[in-house]
Amino acid sequence: MAWIYLSIAIVFEIAFALGTNATKGFTRLWPSVFTIVSAAAGVFTLSLALKTLDVGVGYTIWTGIGSVGTVLLGALIYKERITVAKVVSFLSIVGGVVVLRLAA
């Protein structure tokens, strides 16, 4: 169940990061509400996952996969560029997540 909670937390982490951009400095009400709710839900579901998972593993996977998802969806939603350096970084993060998952 911890991995399910962690997966849900990652979705909220990505929503939080993307929503932060849409708030325009928290000057837009509904994107701001969405962002705050996403942040709270992400931390809550992460805390449920960390009841079982080591904090080093859970938090690293949460932020790592959340970062990759944010960059990929940022490219789709906000037309941000994906460079070779970003792809190499993604692969490094995903590789680290796989090793952490196998070690957990």
Automatic annotation (TrEMBL):
<feature type="transmembrane region" description="Helical">
    <location>
        <begin position="84"/>
        <end position="103"/>
    </location>
</feature>
<dbReference type="GO" id="GO:0005886">
    <property type="term" value="C:plasma membrane"/>
</dbReference>
<keyword id="KW-1133">Transmembrane helix</keyword>
<comment type="similarity">
    <text>Belongs to the drug/metabolite transporter (DMT) superfamily. Small multidrug resistance (SMR) (TC 2.A.7.1) family.</text>
</comment>
<keyword id="KW-0472">Membrane</keyword>
<keyword id="KW-0813">Transport</keyword>
<dbReference type="InterPro" id="IPR045324">
    <property type="entry name" value="Small_multidrug_res"/>
</dbReference>
<dbReference type="InterPro" id="IPR037185">
    <property type="entry name" value="EmrE-like"/>
</dbReference>
<dbReference type="InterPro" id="IPR000390">
    <property type="entry name" value="Small_drug/metabolite_transptr"/>
</dbReference>
<keyword id="KW-0812">Transmembrane</keyword>
<feature type="transmembrane region" description="Helical">
    <location>
        <begin position="57"/>
        <end position="78"/>
    </location>
</feature>
<dbReference type="Pfam" id="PF00893">
    <property type="entry name" value="Multi_Drug_Res"/>
</dbReference>
<feature type="transmembrane region" description="Helical">
    <location>
        <begin position="29"/>
        <end position="50"/>
    </location>
</feature>
<dbReference type="GO" id="GO:0022857">
    <property type="term" value="F:transmembrane transporter activity"/>
</dbReference>
<keyword id="KW-1003">Cell membrane</keyword>
<protein>
    <submittedName>
        <fullName>Quaternary ammonium compound-resistance protein SugE</fullName>
    </submittedName>
</protein>
